[in-house]
Amino acid sequence: MKPTLAIALLASAGIAGIGAVDARETMLRGEESLESRDLGSNNRTNHPVCSEIVDEETGWWESRVQLRANYFTVESLVTDLDNYCTNYNDDPDACRDPSMRSSYTDLSEEELKASCIMMGSSDRRCVGNPCNQYNTGECTLQATAGRCVWLTKKQTNKANKYLGEKIYLGHGCYNNVCHAKAVGRGKLTDEECEDFSIPGVMDCTWCQGGKKYPELKGQGVGCQMTTARTTAKCAPVNNKNIDKSSIWEQLSNPKCQCSSTYTLCNAAVSEGDRGGSDAFILRYPRSSTPSPTPFSSSP
């Protein structure tokens, strides 16, 4: 399955650029424990989605593997946010939750407030949250290597009701909660993975490998949604906390917008087809021609 342009660009070459050596070492440390983490119990049966995800013809897992291996390949696509988040490598709690960063006393306010997420798939690196403000119509599991999903207003209302608090602020692009919450917790039981579910919005299942599922052995697929493909819509970026100078819109459809503060958007607007439908222009101020290369902006 062909990944979105942003994923393809981020996963296109060998390790190089910002933080490359440390990133490779961190990634390998995570891989060392894969064999013991995903064997699972031979007494259970995987949900069919597990094999669908890693299928060479229809799945998107290979793009995730390449993304994980080559994340810092293209320096111009690595955002300030990504660099801020590397402070929390090997610390899943601090990576996911700014309130858990009190011991990081030597960091700037921007670094302490950074919106981060673990790379996942047994990779212990902390990177910028790629899903924020990614309203380009590409916020799907298959287009983002399993990291992001688009939720409608109805779905966010349902999720908030189930959670008992307003976590989701409205329709938009959000993390795949099944995978995001499982990262860094080691091998989970079926029940632990399923407990991350938001019924009817994001339902979770544990994907085991081992002898019973050789196609999954050593892959680190772990906790995933029970569907391999999702849909997404375009929407404006209207969050008042987002720097207006980072907001881009698609030339062929101005309703498709994103913020280059975040990696997926930064990749898309940096390397999109300048003269074609993939081209992006700055929303503020409006211009009739695509801008060359965007800059990375602070969160």
TrEMBL record:
Domain of life of the source: Eukaryota
Signal peptide: 1-23
Keywords: Signal
Protein name, per record: Secreted protein
Organism per entry: Hondaea fermentalgiana
